[in-house]
Amino acid sequence: MKKILNTGSLLVCVIIVFLACKKNDPFPRPAPEHHSDVATEWMKMQMRLTMSTPGFNSIVAGRSFGYSGLTLYEAVVPGLPQAKSLAEQLNGGNALKLLLPNADKHSYYAPASVNAAMAAIIRSLFGNTSPANLKSVDSLEESFKAGFAAKAGNKNLAESAWFGKKLASAIFEWSKTDGGHEAYLHVTSPSYIPPTGPGKWIPTPPAFGAPIHPGWGSNRSFIPGVPGIAAAPAPMEYSEQTNSAYYQQALELYNLSQKLTKEDTTIVRFWADLPVNYNVPAHATGILNQLIILKKFNLNEAALAYVQHGFALSDAVLTVFKGKYTYNTKRPVSYIRSVLNHPQWNTVIPTPPHPEYPAAHALVSAASAAVMENLFGKYLNFTDHTYDNLYGARTFKSFDEYAKEAGHSRVLGGIHYPSSVKLGLELGKKVGDAVVDLNYNNNSNHHKSFD
Questions:
Q1: For the domain that residue 197 is a member of, what is the CATH number?
Q2: CA distances, 380 to each of 21, 40, 233, 298, 306 (Å)
Q3: CB count, 10 Å around CB of 332?
Q4: 259, 396: one domain
Q5: Cα 105 from Cα 214, distance rounded (Å)
Q6: From CA 85, how far away is CA 89, in angstroms rounded?
């Protein structure tokens, strides 16, 4: 998609290439073309921290990628004449605008700003991480700082780092007001009492734990109006009658569970939130990382990719949890054990402790896919190498195929009904499209462009 070109023809050719390959034209900027490694390495660091920091489940992790993506993007804006801060377009963003440092298109050295900003925002977001993890954050920051010495003057580097730190501080301060601050410390709510009645969620095996993050759907979204744009309609009517659609979908799920292949179980585990795996937002970010490196995105391009993807992940999680706790529907394992009378039946992987409808994997993956489709093109053939050593690589013909497999993995695992996954995919695309529709450019005639 992206080619190395002679300097004289760079701008024209890049514009032609991207217009030819993608639905939109978000990236054509000829200079400065800083390498994206400072962005990709910090995102890899954040992915690793989600695996080893208590409380960073998919819900909390999704939020963290939204704020780190915003921090990364805002750190490169001062060096891009046509780029604009996103603050005024965000939900509650006027308060953020008042907090942000005034850059005035200053000639900061963007990699130094990004390095300082990402180190600072990750330390703040992962406030309960281990000393060993913090030492890794410090080491990565110092490693990049050492490499910048030959590329910019000391004064410029110091000013650039100052801007990055002030920026991260402002964004973290704003994040405290969204309803999810330090959610890793209170995953469950002692004051929440789940509604009871036919078809309502009940604790599931093996842990029979309390429902997690029941109030998450009331948090502030990044994109205004997203919970309404992608609101889940009422689910299928609950019934225990053998001729009902509800009973039949449970029976079909049970029958499917009796004939799973080795490939089916591999797919289930590949996309699962298991201790040896990344959670859903971290895995999706890993796919984006691989593609940014493969397509040789520069730092500016990577920044736009990460902010869009981070917003999509965070708002998708918020949207799906609003739906889950609006309807509080029973999980398949509860229905199959009691109504279908298979009391020993188990899912392939543990059922997460929150209501069934709509399907979170499907909704989050579809939002991720919608953003990546806009970035890389609709029919990009790509391979996900996240778990080469655990499960092997998986190749997809499109981003839609990736999202559908991630969603279907939950059906194969016995976690969700197909109808819930189908709706999740539809709603996730709406979230991703809403993110892409923000104006990333001062030129209102190119509202989806970074140029």
A1: 1.10.606.20
A2: 10, 20, 32, 19, 18
A3: 27
A4: yes
A5: 42
A6: 9
3-state secondary structure string across the chain: CCCCCCHHHHHHHHHHHHHHHCCCCCCCCCCCCCECHHHHHHHHHHHHHHHHCCCCCHHHHHHHHHHHHHHHHHHHHHHCCCECCCHHHCCCHHHHHHHCCCCCCCCCCHHHHHHHHHHHHHHHHCCCCCHHHHHHHHHHHHHHHHHHCCCCCHHHHHHHHHHHHHHHHHHHHHHCCCCCCCHHHCCECCCCCCCCCCCECCCCCCCCCCCECCCHHHCCCCCCCHHHHCCCCCCCCCCCCCCCHHHHHHHHHHHHHCCCCHHHHHHHHHCCCCCCCCCHHHHHHHHHHHHHHHCCCEHHHHHHHHHHHHHHHHHHHHHHHHHHHHHCECCHHHHHHHCCCCCCCCCCCCCCCCCCCCCHHHHHHHHHHHHHHHHHCCCCCEEECCCCCCCCCEEECCHHHHHHHHHHHHHHCCCCCHHHHHHHHHHHHHHHHHHHCCCCECCHHHCCCCC
As a residue count, the chain comes to 451
Write out the residue range of the structural domain in which residue 223 sits: 192-446
Residue 12 domain-assigned (yes or no):
no
Domains in the chain, number: 2
pTM score above 0.85: yes
Residue 119 shares a structural domain with residue 221: no
Cis bond before residue 206 (omega within 30° of 0): yes
- Whether the ω angle into residue 190 lies within 30 degrees of 0, i.e. cis, is no
Take residue 195 and report the two structure tokens written for it. Answer: 């509604």
Same domain, 147 and 231: no
pLDDT along the chain (451 residues), means of 10: 36 34 45 86 98 97 98 93 90 96 83 98 98 98 96 94 97 98 97 98 97 98 96 98 98 98 98 94 98 97 97 98 98 98 98 98 98 96 97 98 98 98 98 96 50 44
Q: Which residues contact 276 (CB under 8 A, 6 or more apart)?
A: 390
Compute the distance between CA of residue 78 and CA of residue 160 in angstroms, rounded to an integer. Answer: 10
Q: What are phi and psi of 396, to 5 degrees?
A: -130, 145
For residue 330 the two structure tokens come to 């029973």
- The Cα–Cα gap between 117 and 73 comes to 10
Same domain, 226 and 171: no
